[in-house]
Write a structure and sequence with these properties.
Blueprint (H helix, E strand, L loop, with lengths): L1 H11 L10 H33 L16 H9 L5 H32 L5 H8 L6 H11 L8 H8 L3 E6 L2 E7 L5 H17 L14
């Protein structure tokens, strides 16, 4: 019965076809998502290191605060912190080594993504996206790999819904309620766009938009 319903739906055009990206695009998408995980893991390690220092009452020197926190000099200082116990020193050094490892992996990933950004498949659209204030190479590649072929969306509303930048709507009779941003949609795109929006709010005034028809085929 199910197979008959599916066949009938396909014949009548009642079923929506799910977009499946090609193998190359899917692998590029996974690369960008891997970078996001590396960033998240790095933040967790940094928080653990701060927690260990705070628990032991060790104050970070003023010379390493502000923009110099997590610099190479600060990492060297962390290596030399003495907790007066083998366990404490080992716990800290384990976290520091993990932080260094993640930093190296993230740098390697960034280098590959930058090369990918200049490839024939992405270079034109990446340059177009980067012409918009607050969007850099990484965000451009996130948008390109997550969206794929933008022409598969028939309307702008469909694209916005896919990206998750639409509000929750609750309608009942004559009552209509519009809530906060929907939790549905592509979380990777949504996170990237929200970060760009915060940068734009802080640093720029003009609003720039990219339309569906301006996307390079």
């Amino acid at each position: 019965m199910d197979s008959k319903k599916i066949a009938k739906g396909l014949k009548n055009g009642d079923l929506n076809i799910i977009h499946v990206p090609d193998r190359e695009l899917e692998m590029d998408r996974q690369l960008l998502r891997s970078r996001k995980l590396l960033t998240r893991d790095t933040t967790r390690i940094k928080n653990r290191i701060k927690a260990i220092l705070k628990l032991q009452g060790i104050v970070i020197p003023s010379e390493y605060k502000g923009g110099k926190t997590w610099s190479k000099k600060f990492i060297e200082w962390l290596k030399k912190v003495d907790f007066a116990s083998i366990s404490g020193n080992l716990a800290m050094q384990t976290q520091v080594k993990e932080l260094i490892f993640l930093a190296e992996r993230k740098k390697e990933t960034d280098d590959v993504i930058k090369q990918l950004c200049q490839s024939e498949r992405y270079s034109v659209n990446a340059a177009l996206l980067q012409s918009i204030p607050a969007i850099g190479p990484m965000t451009a590649m996130i948008l390109l790999t997550e969206i794929g072929d933008i022409h598969r969306f028939r309307r702008l509303d469909e694209l916005c819904s896919y990206c998750g930048i639409v509000p929750n709507c609750h309608n009942s009779g004559e009552m209509e309620s519009v809530g906060r941003l929907s939790r549905r949609g592509n979380s990777t795109i949504k996170d990237a766009l929200i970060e760009c929006a915060w940068v734009a709010v802080r640093k720029i005034r003009p609003y720039c938009f990219i339309t569906k028809n301006s996307w390079h085929k």
